[in-house]
Amino acid sequence: MKLYPIETGNFKLDGGAMFGVVPKSIWQKTNPADNQNKIELAMRTLLIEDGNRLILIDCGIGNKQSDKFFGYYDLWSEYDLTTSLAQYGFTKDDITDVFLTHLHFDHCGGAVQWNSDRSGYEPTFKNAKYWSNAQHWDWATKPNPREKASFLTENILPLHASGQLNFIDLPSSGNLLTDSSLGFDILFVDGHTDKQMLPIIKYKNKKIVFVADLVATVGHIPLVYVMGYDTRPLLTVQEKGDFLQKSVEEEFIFFFEHDPYHELATVMQTEKGIQLDSTYSFSEVFGK
């Protein structure tokens, strides 16, 4: 097995929305805001090469929305999905599986693209199986008013129409699915959105967790630093507390999807609770 961090681009969101009730005077120390109160965020994905499989975890925002839509999010970056794959010698057609942690537009927009004459949509990864779960799919295709703007039909419904969509079974008990068909464990969490899936990957004698929107950035590691976007914030606190404790016990390495400054981090137990231990680049821990 080999892992590759894949940069798909960067965007900005309102800092207050990203940190909920945490005062700006505190969160701006780790996530400085611009003059519109927006903070920089990444849309970093992870590629797993495992035998004959190339598994992409999330796929960024894509490029099919209007300029007006993208203008809300101040897209900025020298990276995109195609060039990031190419630097490791891969193309979109090489991808065998696309694992979607959840179906918010910044995580799955790249899963679908315009067709050749821009008359409709088609899966970006024509040779891939796409993976969600039935409960989250139902949640996303019948969205609540709070999340409706994040679940875009053009990002979601073409996957089902293509016949490439597959569902991962929920664990028979608890919230951890071990030994999934994709070769990694999956932690299911419900605070941010219903049945978000977090891969836990055993790699080079370490456990790396793709933390997605449970821990958006290093600045979100403190227990009660919860996004205003979360549908069930008190549940997020509970799930995050359990996860942080398990992270200390099992020495998890966090892989950040949204932190623009840090790819990886570890946490430690202190007298004041679980806090950041160290941050790393991917190459510092796993080599190039």
Automatic annotation (TrEMBL):
Lineage: superkingdom: Bacteria
Annotated ranges, domain Metallo-beta-lactamase: 42-258
UniProt feature coiled coil, ranges: none
Residue spans crossing the bilayer: none
Keywords: Hydrolase, Metal-binding, Zinc
SMART domains: Lactamase_B (SM00849)
Family matches, as InterPro entries: MBL_superfamily_lactonases, Metallo-B-lactamas, RibonucZ/Hydroxyglut_hydro
CDD domains the UniProt entry points to: metallo-hydrolase-like_MBL-fold (cd16281)
UniProt entry tagged with the keyword Membrane: no
GO molecular function per UniProt: hydrolase activity; metal ion binding
Family classification: Belongs to the metallo-beta-lactamase superfamily.
Protein name (Swiss-Prot/TrEMBL): Glyoxylase, beta-lactamase superfamily II
